[in-house]
Each structure stands twice: as structure tokens, then as C-alpha cells.
Specification:
- By secondary structure, the chain is an alpha+beta fold.
- It has one domain.
- 34% of the residues lie in helices and 26% in strands.
- It is built from three helices and four strands; from the N terminus they run αββααββ.
- Strands 2-1-4-3 form a four-stranded antiparallel β-sheet.
- Strand 3 and strand 4 form a beta hairpin.
- The longest helix has 13 residues.
């Protein structure tokens, strides 16, 4: 068996790669009707697809990357609650 390391594929979105490396992202859809225990772990790329608004996505990611807090919580359009927790 060959035990060589294989180089990983470079990301097309370096901002998403940095966020995935430094943060745990938990998402709760419809927070008014679902309990908090129904949160799901997500990647930054999945968050980009869920938000589907480039300006809002960049605003959130910029706040998370340049902020000093350990945890950020965002409520988007009253249907999506996103928690960024630093590792």
C-alpha cells in the first residue's frame, strides 16, 4: 500500500475556505417554529447558496472574519438563523 500524501484541491472561493477553517457554522431554518436542538452543521459554501444574495453574504462573512468576538449570530429574513462559532 502506498502511503503518499495527496495534495488537496484548491478552493474556487478562498473566503469560504478561510471561514470553514476557522469557524463552526450552525444553521436553524424557521427559528420561530423549530426548537434550537434542530440546528445543522453547514459549510460556508452551503451558506452562500442558502442566502442567495451576494451583498448580504459578503457583509456577513466580512463581519465574521474581521470581528473580535468568539460567536456571531445572524437572523436573516426571519427564516434563517446562522451561528458562527470560532474554533
Amino acid at each position: 500500500m502506498n502511503n503518499e500524501l495527496i495534495a488537496g484541491k484548491k478552493s474556487l472561493f478562498p473566503t469560504n475556505a478561510i471561514i470553514n477553517r476557522n469557524f463552526i457554522i450552525r444553521v436553524l431554518e424557521n427559528p420561530k417554529s423549530n426548537p434550537i436542538k434542530n440546528t445543522k452543521l453547514r459549510t460556508a459554501n452551503t451558506i452562500s447558496k442558502l442566502i442567495n444574495d451576494e451583498k448580504l453574504k459578503m457583509k456577513l462573512f466580512d463581519k465574521v472574519l474581521n470581528g473580535k468576538a468568539d460567536k456571531y449570530t445572524f437572523l436573516i429574513r426571519n427564516r434563517l438563523r446562522i451561528d458562527f462559532c470560532s474554533k
